[in-house]
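haha ok so turns out i had the wrong file open the whole time. this is the CORRECT one, sorry everyone. sequence first:
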Amino acid sequence: MVCKMINLSTVLSNIAKSIVDHPDKVTVTEQEEGNEILMTLSVAEEDMGMIIGKRGKIAKAIRTVMKTVAKIDEKKVTVEIK
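then structure:
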């Protein structure tokens, strides 16, 4: 089995930057404890609606993609949006 190391911060940052109007204000912080990673996504206040989406659909989709990508490295990821 080939172990692929994926930079989860880069993946989350690229997803967010492709959605918002102010990609220069996107920041991602990461805290790792063992197999669990807490990622915090911050965007410009005026872009918050774009990241969350109607009824939270975009935020849920972002979390789903990140959990799927993290499984490749056998990690568990939680994404907070601020």
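The chain has a mean pLDDT of 93.
again sry for the mixup
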